[in-house]
Amino acid sequence: MPNQIATARAHPNIAFIKYWGNRDDRLRLPANGSISMNLAGLESVTTVRFSESLSADSFILNGQPQVNEALVRVSDQLDKIRQLSDASIRAEVISQNNFPIGTGVASSASAFAALTAAAVAALNLQLSEHEISALARLGSGSASRSVPSGFVEWYMGNDHQTSFAKTIAEPDHWDLVDLVVVISTMHKEVGSTGGHSLANTSPLQSARIADTPRRLNLCRTAIQERDFDAFAHIVEQDALIMHAVMMSSNPRLIYWLPTTLAIISEVAKWRATGIAVCFTIDAGPNVHLITTSDYAEELRRKIAELNDIQSVLLARPGGPVALMETHLKE
Ligand code: DP6
Question: Which atom of ligand 1 lies nearest, measured to the CA of 141?
Fold first, then answer.
């Protein structure tokens, strides 16, 4: 049998309405729906080659062979895709990210979106975008949102089939820019996967979940109408509500550093001068400043004047996961 091989590229995404906590950890059915934007220019490119001659799965990330947890997580995801074709054939996975680890841009979203799309294509499964998004979710929740194009909503659903993400608006709908302000690249003690299982230990999580439909509606409408003021208000409120849950869980998760708070207060001052900018923060200390193209350069200069900033990444709205030609080094 010939090699069954395919390569896919996916962008990471930044959530405007966050995913935090699962109703079902095994299926990664989220406690709430979420909304995000894919980040063009940042990408994972992954090749999956299935071959009868392989005795085990293998995984090379950024040139480094992976063992233990990373390999197990990839192999588990391949199992879910193999089940769909009744195949037991093993695979070699080679993946490259063009953005650094630990900078506040979760690589698991682009990684599992690209892995899933490549494996599905390599096994010649005919699946819809909806089905690929649901499958990617099993590897990493936020990966479901890196499958469709542009501005995306992940519907929480009530089972595997109904929990998937869909485009709200294409990338050219709104010229938003994400300036990722990197404060620290230190490894987090508790990453997202561990953090999700702590969400319910906070007495605030139930209030956060009950209020999510309101935040989703406001954010979706603000995106559709390109209403930056409404958008800024709800994006910041959503991030602060998630961090209130994190900070009040047991054990507590305090991801912020002093510089995180310093940037939050600068953003309020910049907005008061008429600059379209707001912040959001994931499970780490680094701050995403969301702005429009008009203000991106001015904000870059302002950020450069602040203390304790390591670097700034810039990303615009990105497209969907896409299959590419495979170029493997012999
Ligand atoms: C804070 O999707 O990274 O970034 O499903 O365990 O891989 P796993 O978690 P992940 O969680 C993302 C959490 C977040 C918010 C968000 O992106 O919505």
Answer: 5
Give residues (CB < 6 A) around ligand 1.
15, 18-20, 28, 34, 106, 108, 140-142, 192-193, 196, 282-283
Closest to 200 (Cα-Cα) out of 25, 14, 73: 25
**What is the spatial distance between Cα 197 and Cα 179, in angstroms, rounded to a whole number?**
29
Which residue minimizes the CA distance to atom 6 of ligand 1?
193
> Per residue in 211-261, pLDDT tens?
999 999 999 999 999 999 999 999 999 999 999 999 999 999 999 999 999
Which of 151, 192, 288 most suits a substitution to test ligand 1, by most atoms within 8 Å of the C-beta? 192
Atom 8 in ligand 1: which residue has the minimum CA distance? 140
Q: Which domains does the chain have, with CATH numbers?
A: 5-172+320-324 (3.30.230.10), 173-317 (3.30.70.890)
Interval 192-215: pLDDT, tens = 889 999 999 999 999 999 999 999
Nearest to 133 by CA among 144, 117, 119: 144
- b/e 138-148 (16+ beta carbons within 10 angstroms → b): bbbbbbbbbbb
Q: What pTM was estimated for this model as a whole?
A: 0.97
CA atoms within 13 A on the CB side of 287: 25
Q: Are 287 and 260 in contact (CB under 8 A)?
A: yes
| Cα of 187 from ligand 1 centre, angstroms | 16
